[in-house]
Automatic annotation (TrEMBL), chain A:
Adaptor protein complex 4 (AP-4) is a heterotetramer composed of two large adaptins (epsilon-type subunit AP4E1 and beta-type subunit AP4B1), a medium adaptin (mu-type subunit AP4M1) and a small adaptin (sigma-type AP4S1). Interacts with TEPSIN. Interacts with GRIA2; probably indirect it mediates the somatodendritic localization of GRIA2 in neurons. Adaptor protein complex 4 (AP-4) is a heterotetramer composed of two large adaptins, a medium adaptin and a small adaptin. Its main location: Golgi. This is AP-4 complex subunit epsilon. One of its GO terms (biological process) is vesicle-mediated transport. It is found in: Golgi apparatus, trans-Golgi network membrane. Residues 996-1099 form the AP-4 complex subunit epsilon-1 C-terminal domain. GO terms for cellular component: AP-4 adaptor complex; trans-Golgi network.
UniProtKB/TrEMBL annotation, chain B:
Residues 1-141 form the AP complex mu/sigma subunit domain. This is AP complex subunit sigma. The keyword Transmembrane helix does not apply. It comes from the Eukaryota. SUPFAM superfamilies: SNARE-like. The lineage of its organism: Eukaryota, Metazoa, Chordata, Craniata, Vertebrata. Keywords: Cell membrane, Coated pit, Endocytosis, Membrane, Protein transport, Transport. Adaptor protein complex 2 (AP-2) is a heterotetramer composed of two large adaptins (alpha-type subunit AP2A1 or AP2A2 and beta-type subunit AP2B1), a medium adaptin (mu-type subunit AP2M1) and a small adaptin (sigma-type subunit AP2S1). Interacts with CCDC32; the interaction is direct and mediates association of CCDC32 with adaptor protein complex 2 (AP-2).
Length: 1101, 142
């Protein structure tokens, strides 16, 4: 339609809308007219005109109209509104009414609208009605009800959790349509968690067999292919179930084979099935015969003259090529052809395929092809995607410097300002940090500088801002490497850019920073002076600021040279983040009666609880640290005048170094600040070297201790100590988040030892460090923070990598068995807050709710009694004694619980009575809703598997928090004298079986606390509030296995984790009539469950 | 999962727009224009698939009309291509040799057909006889 036509249409529709508006709002309008108006409004809205004035009338029409009018009303509502539209709430009543109607059409309409748009918070209002509809006699109603539940599952999975069992019913429905609808739900649920539905594999396979075999009514056939969409859906489900699971995969080999065989008809829809089949064959546990057939199938696709099939062939190749690169080789000619295909989509897919097979030999060609494509494409999404891939390949496989820089130049100039900001910063980091070879690095930098200079010399070319920023940084840092060019000339070029209009103010800041860096290298530069003149009157305040800095620095070249040294971009700066040089000033202020500084956070808290003002009462010696919680300054001014003025720079004096950390920062911007333990006060309770550990000391630990001892003595070697301290700190800092994120458990089995040793080691070292150089830890935290800032601000995160000196000796197997023990002993003595220095606090107590009160072996004794081979595994674990769960006259089954540090194991011992021998035994665990059960071969307990007994071991992983649940299963056994039998059993589990202490620093606690969104607060009344906190903490630590992170005054911090990746934090505060608990976690339901457990534990005590 | 279904003519006039994802009105218009720009430039010899933002569009042209379905990247292209065809076959049966004008004058009926065949972003009914039976039943109400 031409422009005039468009104008006319607009005029017409606007007129129509005006008259419609008058009609719908007139009170006399009948519903019949209203229906007509609604249809017209729909049409206007579809063409893109605003008809929002009619929305409310659509809802009214759905509410009041007869069947036909209602239908139009519902249709209008579903097209006008979206899920979170506020008017939708007005529809809920109508929907509820219609769901209860006896008219089939009304029920169907209501179900349709519910499955399209329904306010999430109103789901409970209709859920029971829809559940009822699952039993409806009409197939179409059941089917729509299932889809409505599917929709609910999409938008609010928690609300339909309780009806999973009904989904199973729908899957077994006598009508195929209802079953097919339930597959949508299953596909989604299995995608989220495949392990819970493995038992359904058989059913899915049977259904697919029936479909493929043509057992369905002919209604379901499409172009004489039986229910193709259903087949595809089933194949996808199977693919998810069989992934990495040999046993499940074996169940489906037959049916997949049959599917591949049956789909021979030359029709699009058969190819759709084939494609899905190939996908499934490659995602499940491989079987060579099937793979061969699937590969042949892919060949058929790739070689097909039909363009759609060729495209899908390439797509299939893309995802199988990593498993089977030879397949790509077979089709290389086709791939080459596709590279120059006129359809950009085919080209794009080909590049994707090439990207997956790139190596150092073919990188130049592939990147060239990608760049060619990049220059032609205009779509932002494609550019961003492709630029990222090119940059990745270039960094990974670059054959030489020139190529790398040129490729990156192309990336920057094409990708420009849309590309991911990581790309330029990664590039700069690479340049700055370099590789191992120094000369190589220099060459790369020289080449980069040269290439940028020549790029800048080209007239009338505009580069993207990001590229200019990269250039200015590189020129500023590395121009000194050039022999020929003088810094003045570089400055001239930068100046020219600065004066250009096409440069954004952000880029100008980069440019002026580069000029500032170059100025001390230039002898005399008139350009700099001109620049200062030009920009000191700039309207941009930021630029003016930069210019003034440059101006003043320029006046004193010596200072400038010191401030801006050459090639020091990677050097770490030590920043005194605590601003201790201000201590004197602060002390002066305080002595004049000024109020101590309180951080924003604390001020707010105080406002909230007016009666809880700052506590100025003197504390006992060991608590001297927590008195002045609010102050930012680290110096112990309030403690005594002799310490004021201490800072990292002035050096620590031996005499007062112990009191240096007398004042703690409790809260900072990021929550809790790092805990600096003051061990001085309780020295007798916690001797520097625990006698127990001395015995178990191994060589490298002794070394570490000696180091620390030296450090203590030679307090002058400040820098070294800071490094050591910060390296330990960093090591710890990086170690614990890994645990928290649950990445540790992705490490495969054979690395488990390693990581465990590492953990134990770092925990051990850290605590030893806490003890012996407590004065250092305050420094180290400061340096650590400084590093952290630098690393993030400048994008040079090398610090972490360098400062992880966990040497190879850690992995020495010989020292393994002792390490956990030592770690624990020292933990027990040292890291527990002084208040609870009872050394047995850390001992792992099995929860009281454990099935048996069987003699729980304390870890110490366990180690002694266990054979050497168990030692390293069980050193930190506890296990319950066997409890007989079932049995008959010939066989008894007893269950064991094993609480490991990184998981929870259940073991069952099936033992035959004396005299008979077990020929075979089988143990099945029924799937449980809240946790994942997986078989874990091996044996972690001192039980022997002999002819008369069998041992089964399973590891349990929590999926959803719960309070109490039964785990049931069955044992089938066969005795040698051919007597067979079956026994069922059930074991009750508590949430506490899964809870493990989480040992983190107060700082990490603060960070975690802020990152968790789900919280629960609870008040618990206590009879003796004064003594409430210590005893409550003790109870929580003993009964719930929470780790006491820190205690400050009337507040305590506790943390626990639920392997593999969930953790929960607890903040408790004692007040006048009890204890206020505040729990936070990343898992939504966990705080609730845990607070219940806390309540129970504290009530009981 | 289906994100939206669009029917457009060659000039870019919308003949049907069904959204299964939440967009505001401006975004919807932008999407409609973008889809039109992406789809109409393509040659008949090209594939029936286009990458589109984080999704992909499966489209098929019938006379002057483009039937487009926007789905997730991981979805089966051909399955949705055939779903379009199935849908068009139903329309053809329902309107007895469907043409663009049928869709213009009966556009709200087309929405009913869509609702019978697709629901909650998934393919609900694929049997043509069943869909037609249901449609005729609803028609008899008028």
């Amino acid at each position: 339609m031409d422009y005039i036509g468009l104008r006319e249409e607009e005029k017409l529709i606007q007129q129509e809308l005006i008259s419609l508006k008058a009609t719908v709002s007139a009170p006399t309008t009948t519903l019949k007219t209203m229906k007509e108006c609604m249809v017209r409004l729909l049409y206007c809205e579809m063409l893109g005109y605003d008809a929002s004035f009619g929305y409310i009338h659509a809802i009214k029409l759905a509410q009041q109209g007869n069947l036909l009018e209602k239908r139009v009303g519902y249709l209008a509502v579903s097209l006008f509104l979206h899920e979170s539209h506020e008017l939708l709430l007005l529809l809920v009543n109508t929907v509820v009414k219609d769901l209860q109607s006896t008219n089939l059409v009304e029920v169907c309409m209501a179900l349709t609208v519910v499955s399209q748009i329904f306010p999430r918070e109103m789901i409970p209002a209709v859920l029971p009605l829809i559940e009822d509809k699952l039993q409806h006699s009409k197939e179409i109603v059941r089917r729509k009800a299932v889809l409505a539940l599917y929709k609910f599952h999409l938008i609010a999975p928690n609300q339909v959790q309780h009806i999973h069992i009904k989904f199973r019913k729908a899957l077994c429905d006598r009508d195929v349509g209802v079953m097919a609808a339930s597959l949508h739900i299953y596909l989604r649920m299995i995608k989220e968690n495949s392990s819970g539905y493995k038992d359904l594999t058989g059913s899915f396979v049977t259904i697919l067999k029936q479909v493929v075999g043509g057992k369905l009514p002919v209604d379901f056939s499409y172009h004489s292919v039986p229910a193709p969409w259903l087949q595809i859906q089933l194949l996808r489900v199977l693919g998810l179930l069989g992934k990495d699971d040999q046993r499940t995969s074996e169940l489906m080999y037959d049916v997949l084979d049959e599917s591949l065989r049956r789909a021979e008809l030359n029709h699009n829809v058969t190819y759709a099935i084939l494609f899905e089949c190939v996908h499934t064959v490659y995602s499940i546990y491989p079987k060579s015969e099937l793979l061969e057939k699937a590969a042949k199938c892919i060949g058929k696709f790739v070689l097909s003259p039909k363009i759609n099939l060729k495209y899908l062939g390439l797509k299939a190749l893309t995802y199988v090529v990593q498993q089977d690169p030879t397949l790509a080789l077979q089709h290389q000619m086709t791939i080459i052809e596709c590279l120059d295909h006129p359809d950009p989509i085919i080209k794009r897919e080909t590049l994707e395929l090439l990207y997956r097979i790139t190596n150092s030999q073919n990188v130049t060609v592939i990147v060239q092809k990608m760049l060619e494509y990049l220059r032609q494409s205009k779509e932002e999404y494609i550019i961003v995607n492709l630029v990222g891939k090119i940059a990745e390949l270039a960094e990974k496989y670059a054959p030489d410097n020139a190529w790398f820089i040129q490729t990156m130049n192309a990336v920057f100039s094409v990708g420009g300002d849309v590309m991911h900001p990581d790309i330029p910063s990664n590039f700069l980091r690479l340049l700055a940090e370099g590789f191992d070879d120094e000369t190589e690095d220099q060459q790369l930098r020289v080449y980069a500088v040269q290439s940028y200079l020549s790029l800048l010399d080209v007239e009338n070319v505009f580069y993207p801002q990001r590229f200019l920023q990269v250039m200015s940084w590189v020129l500023g840092e590395y121009s000194y490497l050039l022999d020929k060019e003088k810094p003045e000339e570089v400055i001239n070029r930068l100046y020219k850019l600065l004066m250009s209009d096409s440069v954004s103010s952000e880029t100008k800041a980069w440019l002026i920073a580069a000029v500032t860096k170059l100025t001390p290298q230039a002898q005399t530069s008139s350009t700099v002076e001109r620049l200062i003149q030009d920009f000191s009157v700039s309207l941009d305040t930021c630029m003016r600021q930069h210019t003034f800095e440059l101006k003043h620095l320029h006046e004193n070249v010596e200072v400038m040279k010191n401030l801006l040294p050459v090639n020091k971009s990677c050097e770490e700066l030590v920043v005194d983040a605590s601003l201790s040089f201000l201590d004197g000033y602060v002390a002066e202020g305080l002595s004049r009666g000024a109020a101590p500084y309180k951080p924003h956070h604390q001020r707010q808290e105080e406002k909230l609880s007016q009666e809880k003002v700052l506590n100025f009462e003197p504390y006992g010696l060991s608590f001297s640290s927590s008195g002045f919680t609010g102050r930012q300054s680290p110096a112990g001014i309030s403690l005594g005048s002799d310490i004021s003025g201490n800072s990292a720079e002035t050096g620590l004096k031996e005499t007062n170094s112990l009191k240096l950390d007398g004042v703690k920062k409790l809260w900072g911007k990021e929550g809790y600040l790092p805990k600096k333990e003051s061990k001085a006060g309780d020295a007798p309770e916690a001797p520097p070297v625990p006698p127990e550990s001395a015995a178990a000391e191994n060589p490298d630990q002794a070394g570490a201790k000696r180091d620390q001892a030296q450090v203590l003595v030679q307090s002058k070697e400040e820098k070294e100590k800071q490094l050591l301290a910060s390296s330990l700190f960093v090591g710890l800092g990086t170690e614990s988040p890994i645990n928290l994120l649950g990445k540790a458990d992705t490490v495969s089995h054979k690395f488990r030892r390693k990581s465990k040793a590492k953990e134990a080691r770092s925990g051990d070292v850290a605590s030893a460090q806490n003890l012996t150089c407590s004065s250092l830890s305050s420094l180290s935290s400061a340096t650590y923070k400084g590093n952290d800032c630098l690393a993030t601000v400048q994008g040079r995160a090398s610090a972490e990598a360098k400062e992880l000196p966990l040497g190879p000796e850690l992995l020495d197997p010989e020292c393994l068995p002792e390490l956990p023990l030592v770690g624990k002993l020292s933990d027990g003595n040292l890291s527990v807050p002084p208040l609870f220095a009872d050394s047995d606090m850390e001992v792992f107590h099995p929860p009281l709710s454990a099935v048996a009160a069987a003699p729980a072996a304390a870890p110490g004794t366990a180690e002694i009694t266990l054979a050497a081979s168990f030692l390293e595994d069980t050193a930190e674990d506890t296990c319950s004694g066997g409890v007989e769960v079932c049995g008959d006259e010939t066989v008894t089954v007893s269950s064991y619980k094993l609480w490991q540090d990184d998981g929870f194991l259940m073991g069952w011992l099936v033992a035959a009575e004396s005299g008979s021998e077990l020929q075979s035994a089988n143990l099945d665990i029924f799937p449980a809703e809240n946790f994942k059960v997986s078989e874990r071969p091996g044996c972690c307990l001192p039980v022997t598997e002999a002819g008369s007994s069998r041992w089964f071991q399973y590891s349990l992983q929590l999926e959803r928090p719960f309070t109490e649940e039964a785990l049931s299963g069955a044992v089938r056994y066969q005795l040698v004298d051919t007597q067979a039998g079956q026994l069922g059993f059930s074991v009750s589990l508590s949430l506490l079986d899964f809870v493990r202490p989480l040992k983190i620093s107060t700082e990490d606690f603060g960070k975690l606390w802020l990152s968790f969104a789900n919280d629960v607060k609870q008040n618990i009344k206590m009879s003796e509030p004064q003594a409430a906190l210590p005893s409550a903490l003790k109870t929580l630590q003993q009964k719930l296995r929470l780790h006491v992170v820190d205690v400050r005054g009337d507040e305590g911090l506790l943390a626990c984790r639920l392997p593999p990746s969930t953790s929960c934090l607890l903040h408790c505060r004692a007040h006048a009539d009890g204890l206020a608990l505040w729990l936070r976690s990343s898992c939504p339901a966990l705080p609730d469950c845990l607070s219940y457990q806390c309540h129970k534990a504290l009530e009981g005590s | 999962m289906i994100r939206f279904i669009l029917i457009q003519n060659r000039a870019g006039k919308t003949r049907l727009a069904k959204w299964y994802m939440q967009f505001d009105d401006d975004e919807k218009q932008k999407l409609i224009e973008e889809v039109h720009a992406v789809v109409t430039v393509r040659d008949a010899k090209h594939t029936n698939f286009v990458e589109f933002r984080n999704f992909k569009i499966i489209y098929r042209r019938y006379a002057g009309l483009y039937f487009c379905i926007c789905v997730d990247v991981s979805d089966n292209n051909l399955a949705y291509l055939e779903a379009i065809h199935n849908f068009v076959e139903v329309l053809n049966e329902y309107f007895h040799n469907v043409c663009e004008l049928d869709l213009v004058f009966n556009f709200y009926k087309v929405y009913t057909v869509v609702d019978e065949m697709f629901l909650a972003g998934e393919i609900r009914e694929t049997s043509q006889t069943k869909v037609l039976k249901q449609l005729l039943m609803l028609q008899s109400l008028e």
